[in-house]
Inverse folding.
């Protein structure tokens, strides 16, 4: 089963506590802020840091390859075939 990019991006935004309309600089700034707070060397949780790293890399990849907005319509345009199977299920 294919992972829904919309769900994955929404989870990444939630992990980094970001809104859907942001800039690349906003993502970077928020990631650095949360990384300082949650880094294992600073007494943070390693699993939380791993989640932050994954969310950051996912959002930055999306920004570099596609767009700056993370609304459902824009994500659907970038991944047009993902919801195709869901539309025809009974």
């Amino acid at each position: 089963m294919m992972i829904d990019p919309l769900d994955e991006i929404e989870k990444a935004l939630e992990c980094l506590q970001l809104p859907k309309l942001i800039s690349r600089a906003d993502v970077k700034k928020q990631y650095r802020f949360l990384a300082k707070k949650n880094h294992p060397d600073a007494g943070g949780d390693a699993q939380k840091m791993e989640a932050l790293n994954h969310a950051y890399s996912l959002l930055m990849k999306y920004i570099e390859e596609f767009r700056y907005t993370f609304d459902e319509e824009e994500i659907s345009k970038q991944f047009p075939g993902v919801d195709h199977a869901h539309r025809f299920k009974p």
Summary: DSSP finds five helices and no strands in the chain.
